[in-house]
Amino acid sequence: MRLKNKRVLITGGARGIGRKTAEVFLEEGARVAIADYDEVKGRETAREIGAEFHQVDVSDTAVVQEVFSKIDEDWEGLDVLINNAGTTADGFLVKTSEESWDRVIDVNLKGVYNCGREAARRMMEQEKGVIINASSVVGLYGNIGQTNYAASKSGIIGLTKTWAKELGPRGVRVNAVAPGFIETDMLESVPDKIIDKMSEKTPLKRLGRPEDIAYAYLYLASDEADYVNGLIMSVDGGLVIG
Is domain 7-233 classified as CATH 3.40.50.360? Predict the structure, then answer.
């Protein structure tokens, strides 16, 4: 088992990529807690897969601190944080409201900051640990109608590289995964013609599946990636080659 007895917290773990990651990590021997804003779905998922659950709005600093304090009580430490929680509120720049801008930045970027900071404090004391952040190919290359989302995911790339330099000397590795278009609930807001276009443009001729990202997380969390730090791993079927 590649993650035997590793203590893992996965944000946005109630569904989609987060749920699949929790399932894969449990199969690999990890102790898994999922955190999600949706308490009903989160508890249902945790019960079905055999994980622990914490209800949290990752943009709320005080609540995040409470969750990490509870993890301290339960586990006396944390080995892996998967900053997977995210949201979208798509629209062209001139139609993007301040409210939708703030919400996407708060969840996608401030949420990573909040959770990453709490994890880093504990992992630095342990002198070991792994933080994996969810970016996006949109954060690398931009995308029409996603000003707020692209900004948040670009920011995560900057956080990841900075944290890798800051925390690496203390034994903490920090990396990010940049998914392409993945078959999850988040794509429900994307028009079918855009999805068809993305599938056609992808050399593998399909959208990604949640397990494609879960296995990327698994590699980066495992001891096999012990010398991998500051990487932004694109998992997109070759969509943005060149």
Answer: no
